[in-house]
Amino acid sequence: MKLFVLLFCRLICPVYRKFDAPQLLNYLSSIRCRLLIVRARDTHPMLRCPHEDQFVEMYREHCEEFAFQAVDGDHYVHLTEAAKVAPYVNAFLRQLFD
Fold it and tell me: Which of 12, 37, 56, 95 is 20 to 30 A distant from 43 in Cα terms?
C-alpha cells in the first residue's frame, strides 16, 4: 500500500488515499462546529493551500460559528508571538459565551 502525503491547509497529514479538492470540500462540509482559523501571513508557500478561499467559504456556510483571521508572522506565530493571536482567540471565545 502506498502512503501519500496530503497538503491540506498548512498541515501535512499522512493519508492512505489522496483526496482532491472537491472530495475534501464534500467531506469537510459536514463540519458544523464552532471554528476559528488563524492564518499566518508569512507562512511558507509549501504550507499554503491553493484552495483556501473555497474552504473558508465552505466553513462560513456550514459552521455554527466561524471566524477567519490573518495575522502577521510565520507558521509558528501562535507560539512565538502569542500576543498577536490571543486577541482573536479571546474575542472568538467571548462571542461563544455571551
Answer: 95
pLDDT in tens, 11-61: 555 555 677 888 888 888 888 899 999 999 998 887 778 888 999 999 999
Q: What is the pTM of this model?
A: 0.73
Q: How far apart are CA 88 and CA 31, in angstroms?
A: 21
∠ CA 37-61-78, rounded to 5°: 0
Dihedral over Cα of 43, 49, 51, 56: its sign: negative
Q: What is the distance between the alpha carbons of residues 86 and 93, in angstroms, rounded to a whole number?
A: 10
Name the percent of the chain in helix, strand, coil, to the closest 5.
45, 25, 35
Dihedral class, residue 10 (left if φ above 0, else alpha if ψ from -120 to 50, else beta): left
Cα torsion 76, 19, 13, 57: sign: positive
Residue 50 has φ and ψ, to the nearest 5°, of: -70, -15
